[in-house]
Amino acid sequence: MSDFDVIIAGGSHNGLACASMLAVKGLKVLVLEKNEWVGGGAVTQEIVAPGFKHDLFSSSHIFIHMNPDFNQHLRPELEKFGLKYLWGEDKITGHPFADGPGVVVYKDVERTCDSIAQYSRADAATYRKIVDDFAEIRDGFIRGVFSPPNLPSLQPAAMERSPEGLRRLREFNLSARAFVEEKFENDAIRALILGWSLAPHTRPDQEGMGAGFYVMVPSVHHYGQAIPEGGSQQLPLSMCRLIESRGGMIVTGADIAKFIISDGRCKGVRTADGNDYIAKHGVVTALDPTQTFLRLIDEEHLTENFRTAVRHFSYSDHGIARIHLALNERPQFREESLDGIAFHRFFGSVDKIRHQFAEIELGELPSEPNLVYVNWTIRDPSRAPAGKHTLSLDTVVPSKLRSGKKWDDVKEAFGETMLNEVRKHVTNLDSGNIINSVVHTPEDLFRYNRSFVNGSPTGGERTLAQWGAFRPFPGYSQYKSPIRGLYMTGPHCHPGNGISAMGTITANVLLKDLGV
Q1: d(Cα 362, Cα 263) in Å, to the nearest integer?
Q2: What pTM did the predictor assign?
Q3: Distance between terminal CA atoms of the chain?
């Protein structure tokens, strides 16, 4: 088949964002997806009980609303095909602590600072300053995140020209823990900010993470936080409808067996059932680098140096464990100010966070896991039968256990461990309220999606050696592979993981090459 301008290998939300951008610019696109569903990390299924819709992986949508191409070119079109965002207009997240009332992050900065001031007025002032400082860097940040990355020397060269720039550059090079311990005085507030900053699945003592605070913290106040009505998968499903309305095609159950390369150019793909699909202008891989370059491309088409770079790409030895629950009634918090909030972070102290990561490094099950908690039916009742609720808890865990046991052997017991952490603050998570539950581990994540290597949905570690111009490989950060006509998109490319629709960047690179 050669009726398509561009073929997208992999129906992740980024692959579909790339395809959607190309479609609205007039190109005919084919998307091939191995699974019987689309979405990659944006998948919603009734896995616990009929009528209860759970987001299996990514859930909260923040960074996508920073993407200028999504806002200008895609979102108005996607809303015509069923995408409807439900916004957090008041309380965004809750942060329970063992002592005291906990902290609520509101959309409003002043109310958030008032909540923090219950623990430390100085920390409230620091928080406000970080939010205010974002206004100074916002435009440059947006350009940097949603464009091909610059050379690594450009930012330091610009910042080193003034004492203030050098001070800020030093902060950018701090680890997340060093940053919070330097900037904040109260341990509970330090834990709140540190837990927040680890959302991209970085380690607390990993250097070079300081810049994230000037984005992660202010973004919810500047851009808000939203979820698609009906589940996270409504985003990719609306993209499919948009692509099809412009003459494109989505094929699920299409397991890619090989990229077709001739005369040094990628011409198309061959699927496991023997069908060849040929593209007129290019192919985009939304699959992880190992699949793309070591499994699906014959060795003769790549240099050994490049294949070595692919083998050295680090996916992380940290995975995700998650428990999904169907509930008869909404969870009730002991602390009244925390009740009725859809999203909570259970990060009790800096020491508790450090202890969990020490256990992970040793391949041990976290004994008191820090948790992300989502009860989206508070905001979106369509995700459960009338009056019922969904709840999901997740945490970071070792991909493999030092004991030699398989995750399947310990998953149910670890699900109970996660629940017991929440029960310290919630009164009604007992057998009378829990209709059913399902635990997913790193092994389950990889079963769902081969790009979730080691059970990590991040597309590769966010380290200094694997960031910006080094992501995914030095010399190949501009969304082009060594093979002409084969482009790359997905979380293994800049700017990394999260629901951002960064596939629009790859689309723009391809469109520029075509002169569109």
Answers
A1: 48
A2: 0.97
A3: 24
